[in-house]
Amino acid sequence: MRYSITKEWKNPGAPLADTVLIEGLVVETVVGVYDWEREVTQSLVIDLEMAWDNRVPGKTDEVADALDYAAVSTRVESCLQTLRPKLLEYGAEVLAKTLQDEFGISWLRLAIRKPGAVPAAKAVGVQIERGEKTETGAR
Ligand SMILES: Nc1nc2c(c(=O)[nH]1)N=C([C@H](O)[C@@H](O)CO)CN2
C-alpha cells in the first residue's frame, strides 16, 4: 500500500502554508515627507505574499475560489493613489488592513520599496507582516 505524505499527515492542525504572490508591482503615486515630493508622482514597488487555501481552486479550477491577484493588484494601485502617503510605513499599514478586510486575507507579508529615494541604494523601503496563518487559510 502506498501512502502520500501530506502536510496534514505530518503535522495535523498546522497552519496552511499556501500563498498567492504579487512581485514587483509598480504604482505611481504622490508619496514622501518633503514639500517637493507633494508636487510630483514617484514609483513605488510592491511585493505581496498572501495566505490563501489554494487547494480549493486547485480542485475546482474556478477563479471565484481563488484569491484573484489581478483584482488585488488593481486595489493596491487605487489604495495607494488615493492615500498619497507621506511615510511608506503609513502606506503599508493602511494597504495591509484594506486588503485583509476586503479580500478576507488572514495573513500577509507586504514590502513597499521606493527606488531612487536614496541614490546610493538600489531601493529603500519597509516590510510588514500582519495577521495569523490559520489552518484553512481563511480569516
Ligand atoms: N522609514 C522611512 N524613512 C523615510 C521615509 C519613509 O517613508 N520611511 N521617507 C523619506 C522621504 O520621503 C524620502 O524618501 C525622500 O527621498 C525619508 N525617510
Automatic annotation (TrEMBL):
<dbReference type="GO" id="GO:0005737">
    <property type="term" value="C:cytoplasm"/>
</dbReference>
<dbReference type="GO" id="GO:0016853">
    <property type="term" value="F:isomerase activity"/>
</dbReference>
<dbReference type="InterPro" id="IPR006156">
    <property type="entry name" value="Dihydroneopterin_aldolase"/>
</dbReference>
<keyword id="KW-0456">Lyase</keyword>
<keyword id="KW-0289">Folate biosynthesis</keyword>
<comment type="pathway">
    <text>Cofactor biosynthesis; tetrahydrofolate biosynthesis; 2-amino-4-hydroxy-6-hydroxymethyl-7,8-dihydropteridine diphosphate from 7,8-dihydroneopterin triphosphate: step 3/4.</text>
</comment>
<feature type="domain" description="Dihydroneopterin aldolase/epimerase">
    <location>
        <begin position="20"/>
        <end position="130"/>
    </location>
</feature>
<keyword id="KW-0413">Isomerase</keyword>
<dbReference type="GO" id="GO:0046656">
    <property type="term" value="P:folic acid biosynthetic process"/>
</dbReference>
<dbReference type="GO" id="GO:0004150">
    <property type="term" value="F:dihydroneopterin aldolase activity"/>
</dbReference>
<dbReference type="InterPro" id="IPR043133">
    <property type="entry name" value="GTP-CH-I_C/QueF"/>
</dbReference>
<comment type="similarity">
    <text>Belongs to the DHNA family.</text>
</comment>
<protein>
    <recommendedName>
        <fullName>Dihydroneopterin aldolase</fullName>
        <ecNumber>4.1.2.25</ecNumber>
        <ecNumber>5.1.99.8</ecNumber>
    </recommendedName>
</protein>
<dbReference type="InterPro" id="IPR006157">
    <property type="entry name" value="FolB_dom"/>
</dbReference>
<dbReference type="Pfam" id="PF02152">
    <property type="entry name" value="FolB"/>
</dbReference>
